[in-house]
């Protein structure tokens, strides 16, 4: 037989506490036993290991119900395990194993495990392997009485499941379900991507404009870089020319210095050679001293080796004496055993001859015993025949008496039943009253849960509306965050540029810029120098233009403590050719002011105050401010300034808030002024930028915090929606469970009412049956008297035959005793034979062992002889080496004394050379000091060069060599400066520039293109999935229809055969899809009209369902089929038809039947008895039937 169920192993599953293994064979296997013994637990176990997840289908209420719960003598178990082994010799299952074992294990903790051939796997793996084989929890390989009812009374749509398994479309169905799931995911992904694409589309256009602006900014910045680099290269060219003159002076001093250095080098080389020679002598001295020591040590070591070798030679001699004795003893033992072994072999041969003689005598006695047994058997058969007649008469009499007892019992039972029925009617009334109350309670619970469900759904809707608002708010905040980030980036860029301008002293005169840079870079000691006047004073924004116009170039004057500090700075400027600077020594500058007449002018129209009063500075700098601005009047506008100038007769400097300047003497300066040229405003602008950046950073942090908070709230509300949905699902599940319970309660209520009606009818039947039983008892008593007379005659004949049989049995016992005595002698002789053979074998093994030991001792003896010879050779060798090392030690000590004398002589010569070397060193130092003075001047130029080079590196990360690649003929330094100013104004006119926009746009565009490609891919995948689903559906419909027609025709044949006539049919209901239509069963048993199966009797329904099962097995045989009491509702005639047909189909399907019916048991190839010898613990007994 191909694939079949070979073995089931249960441990801890339900009532099978101990490990039970049941071996099933091909054909029909019947499982029998009383009710409650645990037969159906075997079906549950197989169903469970094949993947059943519903505990109710396993006749439990929770998963741990399948684990052994304990008994009076056994503790509960913590685990249940079931394994089934399938014979897969024909490779029907897609696995390269001749046996396939599925195992399922569950623990009380709820953890569940699946194994395939002892290897962990998933339930899905097992289901895929068994798919379309008919095996599985949803297949037709396991059919119980409840499933028979479901096939017959269930909805027609549910009936199609078993036919789908027959059609082999379960794999296609699983593929279709997987494809539909992927289709749903694909559509969801497309919707999400469409939303993202729409959002990105809105961001792309404004970001594109920002990108174009940023690219223009970079272009202008690149031009500015080109001009600035060429300006710096012009400065470098000037510095290099000046450095060339200083370099010539340095070379002259270096030539003189080199002569002395060369002379010292020659002397130093001689000293080094003497030192090296001295070092070699020291090393040779130490080496020869060590060699002499090593030779002495080696000589002493050889003395020790010589003594050890002599001791080893003595030890080997003693060991040889002991080995010689042991070898002689072993040789003597081997000789003695060989002599005794021959005698024992002769005794064994004689013993074998005696055994053969006894076996001949036993054979002759057994032949005589067979003749006596034949005589006894004939007499026994005759007696048994007569006894059979007696037993038949006794049985007949017993049956009659049993009939009386049975009739009496039936009468008693009927009377008891009458009492029981009346009690049952009372109990049914009580139960229905209770059930009626429970039904009302469940209805109330359903209404309450429904109300809760509606409230949760409203909460979900409200929360989802709020989530939409949060999402909109979050998007607005993100846009605002991006905008603020761009503003901050622009502010930071302008602040950095302004700071770089300020730190590089842009706008200052050449000399002032060089002086301030030198102080900043610590090239010039800044003690007593306070910096430019512009850095010392502070002016309100309103008066910045007026004050800067009034001071003019004085803003760049350097304030210092004394004339000496000014002098030191001027000398530095002259020495390094760094330009000119005006200094304001605090000890010489005196403040100036208006006289009494001029003070009156301050009260004129438009006059604000003198400029010194509108300027703030440190107290020590007030004389400077008074000196420069004490006689400068600030006026609001030009008309008023003209009037005041005329009043003072053009003797004072007057400046307006717009920067028009009236000089003493009458000249007037005015016109437009570049905004960026104001030095005073830089410090204020830097401070304002710092404040703006701080505010922007704070605003951006607040916005980002709000985004984070809103995102957190968004996620929390999403979780709340999920939680509410889960709650709604749970509530709906509870409502569905309660509705099922309500339906069950109503069904039970109706069934009780129906049963009560049946019980009342039964009371009338019982009264009629009691009268019939009394009449039958009188008739049976007359038959018993006639049977007793016939029985007495048969018993007399049996007695005579038994006396003859007794004599034959005595003769047989004598013969049997004689044979037994001979067998005892034979057994004794055989035991002696075995003992002798064992003794001989032991001695032969001892001989082999001693021979091996003798070989080992002899080898050891020879090895020791060789070792002794080698030891003697070593003694001679060590003595010779000791003599050689003694002579070597003496020669080495003589060499050590000679080296010591040479070392002392060389040390004295080296001391004289060192004195001359020191004199030359003093002369060298004098020349080096002269050279250093020249180098200081060169260093100053290098510093200036490095300053310019540092600007190249700081601003553009370029070396001078790299900067030369940018060199172009642009014009003079002045022309380059004018072009730089124009470019700066053009850059400033661009306003806020988001440099990140270039990367942001490219990244966003790439993301847009990527998402669009993904969307296209998803569309293509959706179309392919749609085609795949249609293709699978078409394949399933074709396969189902083909299989359905085959099952339909076979069902008609099997139905007619099982019912002995009649007809039946399977009908596809409705106009819907082939894969959704219901299946109806129409049956017409012999002598009845064609009708729906629901109108048949219980037995007819069962036999119709069995006919459908056999029809399916004929079309597509399952490897094995488990039938759990499916024939319980059949009468004896139908049982015989069922059993006959079952035997017919057992040729291609293995059957495992759980049954109480003897007719079914009679056709079984093997019976498996299930019993409970111990409460709650099932045992198995197997009986093979030939």
TrEMBL record:
Q: What positions belong to coiled-coil segments?
A: 169-230, 320-368, 404-466, 679-769, 798-937, 1001-1038
InterPro entries found in the cross-reference section: P-loop_NTPase (IPR027417), RecF/RecN/SMC_N (IPR003395), SMC (IPR024704), SMC_hinge (IPR010935), SMC_hinge_sf (IPR036277), SMC_prok (IPR011890)
- Tell me yes or no: is DNA-binding among this UniProt entry's keywords: yes
Q: Where does ATP bind?
A: 34-41
Give the CC-aspect GO terms. Answer: chromosome; cytoplasm
For the biological process aspect of GO, one term held by this record is:
chromosome segregation
Q: Where in the cell is it found?
A: Cytoplasm
Q: Output one GO MF annotation.
A: DNA binding
- Matching Pfam families, A to Z? SMC_hinge (PF06470), SMC_N (PF02463)
Classify the main location: cytoplasm
Alphabetical UniProt keywords? ATP-binding, Coiled coil, Cytoplasm, DNA-binding, Nucleotide-binding
Q: Which residue range or ranges hold the SMC hinge domain?
A: 527-645
The family note in this entry says: Belongs to the SMC family.
Q: What does this protein do?
A: Required for chromosome condensation and partitioning.
Please give the subunit comment from the record.
Homodimer.
Recorded hits in NCBIfam families, A to Z, give: SMC_prok_B
Q: What note about domains is in the entry? A: Contains large globular domains required for ATP hydrolysis at each terminus and a third globular domain forming a flexible hinge near the middle of the molecule. These domains are separated by coiled-coil structures.
Protein name listed in UniProt? Chromosome partition protein Smc
Q: Which organism is it from?
A: Biomaibacter acetigenes
